[in-house]
Amino acid sequence: MTTTTTDTTTPSPHEPAFPMSRDGKCPFDPPPRGLAAQKEAPLTRVTMWDGSRPWFVTRYAEQRALLSDPRISADISNPGYPSPAPRPKGSGSPLSFILMDDPEHARLRRMVTAPFMVKRIEAMRPGVQKIIDDLLDEMLAGPKPADLVEAFALPMPSLVICRLLGVPYSDHDFFQKNSNLIIKRGVSPEDQGAAMGALIGYLHRLLALKLEQPGEDIFTDLARRVDAGDLSAADAAQMGVLLLIAGHETTANMIALGTLALLEHPEQLARLRDSGDPALVTSAVEELLRYLTITHDGRKRIAIADIEIAGQTIKAGEGVIIATDLGNRDPEAFEDPDTLDLERDARHHVAFGFGVHQCLGQPLARMELQLAYTTLLRRIPTLALATPIDQVPFKNDASVYGVYELPVTW
Amino acid sequence: MKVILDQDKCVASGQCVTAADTIFDQRDEDGIAILLDAEPSPEREAEVRQAAAVCPVLAIRLES
After folding, report:
1. Which one of A262, A365, B10, B49 counts the least CB within 10 Å of its CB?
2. Over pLDDT 70: what percentage of chain A?
3. Interface contact flag, B18 A366, Cβ < 8 Å
4. What CATH number has the domain bearing residue A393?
5. Between B14, B30, B56, which is nearest A354 by CB?
6. ipTM for the complex?
């Protein structure tokens, strides 16, 4: 045997704790301990709150290899599945198929893939443009400074996903509050369990209502599948919660944090604002996705067979955390990775993950971000931060990174 | 160049359509990729290679 395995019971004194904290020097950079670990080795171990020591995968090539390896499982019910915090008891698999393996994962995912396909998302462009224009009209008519998160970044994707799913936007405060509790670090398992329970209950009621008052939306389709016996009511409700959370939290954070990153890189901002080139808009969005990688808690997996990789053996039953925020800053995959360069080809980034679980809503996210950044900069060419950047409240305590508020003026 | 697409692997990410929309499409019922042109012309080669490179499940194989 030529490979070595690390002792799984005794943590080395240099082993970083996970999740790691950013240092605040550059709010867009991954945690320094993560970057240092990446420099040292493609695989290391981290220590978790419960004393467990999952593998920590730092480099792009190994990340892609593992995320597309069938010996790597996303099934949260496997004992030893890495969890960055205590989990609520008895909640099953509340985030549906993203925490399952094939064939069940594929069966459920394929029920909701059609509405997110590229041509159907492209057909939504005019409607999304209208939502963006209306929100910006309202913001521009209001007082300065304005909070870009509240006025634009959050309501925009929320209105879009509500329309696509068939959720009344008037329920926004309710699901926003509860989904925040689910993605926030440091919330007690009881409170997280209660938030999940509230959302699941809401979905059950909404899906029942969809049978009586059907619409042209995803939840009506799910309700019909339940009615036809193709899908259990519990699975449908969990899928609904997943789509609701994933559909607005992530895009909202990308809009606000991406705008801040552009404001901090005025030359890049000017190039994007003044260029009419659609290719630059496309590459700018991919680069911002790469540079910011807002899902900064790593993709959590568990090995279901021994895997030899990079001179190490990941043993069956060992947890694996794949730090895609670090993979997107790997100099082997992206030249000069810590520089934001809107013109680079960043399309191979792993901000949407990789493998069978890669983001289902990515065509929607791309379209929303392309329209959001360009419309914002075109309509408000003098957009400026209305506070020093060190006063901006960053989401260091959430599993999806971003800013809580972004005071802007013009 | 010959393109081989494994639809059983496909997870409907839409990456191939975004990279090369004259070569790939998605079927209406579930977004699974379909091949529009299995033998693309040389000027399409770069974008087809890009599509194969970004497919998250490596479902696109290229033969020269």
Report:
1. B49
2. 95
3. yes
4. 1.10.630.10
5. B56
6. 0.94
